[in-house]
Amino acid sequence: MRILLTGSSGWLGSALAPRLRGLGHDVTGLDPVPSAQTEVVGSVADRELVLRIVSENRIEAIVHSGALHKPNIEHYENADFVATNMQGTLNLLDAAVACGVQRFVFTSTTSLMISQAIRAGFQGGARKAAWLTEEMSPEPRNIYGVSKLSAEHLCRLYHIEHGLPVVVLRTARFFPEADDMAHAIEQSDANTKANELLFRRLTVEDAAEAHVAALEKAPSLGFDLFIVSAPTPFRPEDCAELIADAPAVVARYFPDYPRLYVRKGWTMFSSIDRVYDPSRARQKLGFVCKTSFADVLAALEAEA
Question: Where would I find the NAD-dependent epimerase/dehydratase domain in this sequence (predicted)?
């Protein structure tokens, strides 16, 4: 397929572009930042540029992973998020309809699912972790979340009005940077990322593979939305204890983890406030992340 990949110079794009090319696809990368994976330097907010790229390259599929992200909030105005994340998505959808694009994959974020109440650890007035599925009604807490949720709605609208096959992937964390709340976290960055694989993280390689799966399934799905995160060992009935004593819950599922963590000098989060459930992606998209918390423990065991 002839694919337009936005955000091709970013962390995900840099992993996804070579993966798509390795599968035999003709990829045109679009990003404001030059890179080896980017053929066109420019913004999705440039409506004429987007239409020209899609038309001249006879694009058959669009993977829209470019965006302003949560860390950009400190340096950009709300209007910039609207221009890039909302108007940019609209520009791509309009170009897709105008040029007969056959499938559209949109990279969204699980971040838009986290309300202030969830961050505070309250569900229905009780202290427990939130068990998050695609069925919940999000209450975004910042302009990043609002703009990404609005873009999701645009994707759904264009499927309804124009029949454009669209798959939305709400990806959990896969960025390489330290947590933006790292100052409040006792664990090291590597320790933190390992812990997060239990409930809110995946590798960038798995994120790229999820997009490959979405591209393949988009025409048969029509429109669908999936949480993409490493498989969690937890169950909804664990949520109250995850808030109160997360290490005890983790030890039930992974009895060897305390020994391995002590040897490494790592610790588990004392409390976990959310769990992303990726089971729908397994059932309908046929996708499961390859890397999980169990792989981290296997690597720690192998270090001996």
Answer: 3-217
CA distances from 68 to 7, 31, 65, 208, 284 (A): 10, 12, 10, 19, 29
Estimate the crossing angle of helix 257-264 against helix 293-302, to 10 degrees: 60
Q: State how far the Cα of 205 lies from the Cα of 207, in Å rounded to an integer.
A: 5
Q: What is the pLDDT of residues 42-81, one digit of tens each?
A: 999 999 999 999 999 999 999 999 999 888 888 999 999 9
pLDDT given at position 125? 64
10 Å Cβ neighbour count for 284?
Answer: 15
C-alpha 88: how far from chain center: 18
Please name the amino acid found at residue 236.
P
Asked if CATH classification 3.40.50.2000 holds for the domain at 2-302, the reply, yes or no, is: no
Distance of alpha carbon 227 from its chain centroid, rounded? 8
DSSP H/E element including 208: helix 204-221
CA dist., res. 276 & res. 132, Å (int): 5
Examine the pLDDT at 243 and tell me if it is beyond 70: yes
For the record, the structure tokens of 40 come out as: 């066109």
For the chain, what are the domain ranges? 2-302
Say which residue the tokens 């979340």 belong to. Answer: 145
Cβ contacts of 169 within 8 Å, gap of 6 or more: 105, 106, 107, 108, 210, 211, 214, 225, 226, 228
More confidently predicted of 166 and 118: 166
88-99 and 47-56 are packed helices; what angle lies between their axes, rounded to 10 degrees? 30
Taking the C-alpha atoms of residue 182 and residue 297, their distance in angstroms, rounded to an integer, is 23
Residue tagged 């105008």 (tokens): 98
pLDDT grade for 123, boundaries at 50, 70 and 90: confident
**Could you report the per-residue pLDDT of 166-179, keeping only the tens digit for each?**
999 999 999 998 88
